[in-house]
Design goal:
By secondary structure, this protein is mainly α. Helix content is 88%, strand content 0%.
Length: 136
């Protein structure tokens, strides 16, 4: 029983460390962007995306993780658009739209999720248009 309790505490501590790391990466990416370091911001956001994707895959019922992932993907899409990586931007915005759709369907009364979904749809459409126009 003692070992099971310690194992549970260890898993919880690892999870908390991961979540803190993700939040830190997102904040540092924001700082990078304000300093014109879009490539560094993109790398931080990709790392945050990967961590959050892993968490969501482990427990898809955790609404906050889905919301955090959708927000991180939107941030990533904006950064890589500025870098001219329209394919990655389109993929990030599309995944964000998928998550906002899931969240909005789960709880239709949450207006913020409905609004986020509408914005996500617009971002996907804009990214697809930019990607088409940029293709030779």
């Amino acid at each position: 029983d003692h070992l099971m309790h310690r194992a549970a505490m260890y898993r919880h501590a690892r999870l908390q460390r991961t979540l803190v790391g993700v939040q830190l990466a997102r904040r540092l990416a924001h700082v990078d962007r304000t300093e014109g370091l879009d490539q560094a911001a993109a790398e931080r956001l990709m790392a945050a995306r990967d961590e959050l994707e892993s968490l969501v895959a482990r427990d898809p019922s955790r609404i906050q993780w889905k919301q955090d992932l959708a927000e991180a993907l939107t941030e990533l899409g904006e950064v890589v658009t500025a870098l001219g990586d329209y394919e990655t931007a389109t993929a990030a915005f599309a995944r964000s739209q998928q998550l906002w759709t899931e969240l909005a369907e789960t709880e239709p009364r949450v207006i913020a999720w409905q609004e986020a979904l509408n914005h996500a749809k617009k971002r996907v459409s804009a990214a697809q248009t930019i990607q088409r126009e940029a293709s030779p």
